[in-house]
From TrEMBL:
<dbReference type="Pfam" id="PF01717">
    <property type="entry name" value="Meth_synt_2"/>
</dbReference>
<dbReference type="InterPro" id="IPR002629">
    <property type="entry name" value="Met_Synth_C/arc"/>
</dbReference>
<protein>
    <submittedName>
        <fullName>Methionine synthase</fullName>
    </submittedName>
</protein>
<feature type="domain" description="Cobalamin-independent methionine synthase MetE C-terminal/archaeal">
    <location>
        <begin position="15"/>
        <end position="335"/>
    </location>
</feature>
<dbReference type="InterPro" id="IPR038071">
    <property type="entry name" value="UROD/MetE-like_sf"/>
</dbReference>
């Protein structure tokens, strides 16, 4: 896919959400997201349903020839599929059926739209999945390679099925909340004497890019880490990078400017995942992004051309009414950025 085609799918001035949603009703969730996010709806995740429906369980359901089960600490690779593998795949199928139903409900408006699917990225998946012996997959370079290849193949198949069933264009989001910990070597091992080594940035980048290039769709890499590894992500093959703007420090501004210079789109998390004590308007949501581009000196047209608007992170633990409100706030903010960003003023 050409850079121009990629930018048409992951373009600035639109609203989307990160992935997870409150509650356990896939049809209600799909109908809400498909209806509210006209430019970039997504296949929602509903962690409230329990094992197999959270980010790692959902992603594990996509793996090819790498079955898994649960352990006392999380998910573990196993020699053969178990009940958890079957449940995770059944939940994914149910969610896709619900989205297809909601998509058809949009009528002709659904034709040619773009939809986003999400999965844990290879670094986070390797950090959170266990080998049969209980160690993190990340501790075995051969297992990491196999996991990355399996993930890329499974995601490619998944994206192809979504595209065929919805008649939509597909972009892929890789969630990498553990990427900073992987690079720093701050993940705990199985005991106090068992440390998990820091993965050098070139090695980690090779792992991440093997999946990005393998899925054959435009990729957005998102991180909810308190200290997003922006310099590292800048070197990736991803078309867009997403992060919570509230986590950004003054020292990160140069990295954000360089992300824009390299041609990447930014998915800025501008809306808190929990409701504020007093009602907010789109203007209050928009202000940090406007001040960011003004401070970087890149011109306000950047808001329309290069910035996607999202909640700060997943909405699984948000009240349902606030989750719905975040979508409308994101949409209103994106509209303001595309209509006349130069006229935006703040006290």
């Amino acid at each position: 896919m050409s850079a121009e085609q990629t930018e048409q799918l992951l373009r600035g001035g639109i609203a989307t959400a990160v992935g997870s949603w409150p509650g356990t009703d896939p049809r209600e969730a799909a109908a809400t997201v498909a209806g509210e996010l006209g430019d970039l709806a997504h296949l929602v995740e509903l962690p409230g349903r329990g094992t197999g429906s959270d980010m790692i369980g959902r992603t594990s359901a996509l793996l090819v020839d790498m079955p898994f089960d649960v352990s006392t600490r999380g998910y573990r690779l196993t020699p053969r599929p178990g009940a958890v593998s079957r449940r995770a795949r059944d939940l994914l199928r149910t969610d896709l059926d619900a989205l297809e139903e909601a998509w058809e409900g949009t009528g002709s408006a659904g034709a040619g739209r773009t939809v986003k699917v999400q999965a844990a990225g290879p670094l986070t998946l390797a950090a959170q999945l266990e080998l049969a012996g209980g160690h993190r997959v990340l501790t075995d370079s051969g297992a990491v390679r196999d996991l990355s290849e399996s993930l890329a193949e499974g995601l490619a198949r998944h994206a192809a099925e979504v595209a065929a069933r919805l008649g939509a264009k597909v972009v892929v989001q890789l969630d990498e909340p553990s990427s900073t910990a992987v690079l720093e070597g701050s993940l705990p091992g199985t005991s106090l004497l068992d440390s998990v080594r820091a993965v050098p940035a070139p090695e980690a980048l090779s792992i991440l890019d093997s999946v990005i290039t393998g899925v054959r769709h435009p990729v957005l890499v998102h991180t909810c880490a308190d200290r997003p590894a922006l310099e590292f992500l800048r070197g990736s093959a991803a078309a867009a990078i997403g992060f919570d703007l509230a986590t950004i420090r003054t020292a990160d501004l140069d990295d954000i400017g360089e992300l824009l210079e390299t041609g990447k789109q930014l998915a800025l998390g501008l809306i808190a995942v929990q409701p504020p004590s007093t009602p907010v308007t789109w203007r209050e949501i928009a202000e940090p992004a406007v001040r960011l581009v003004d401070r970087l000196g890149v011109g306000r047209r950047t808001l329309a051309d290069r910035i996607l608007i999202t909640p700060a992170c997943g909405l699984a633990n948000a009240p349902l009414t606030w989750a719905r409100r975040t979508l409308s706030l994101a949409t209103e903010t994106a509209r303001a950025f595309t209509e006349d960003p130069e006229s935006l003023t703040f006290d």
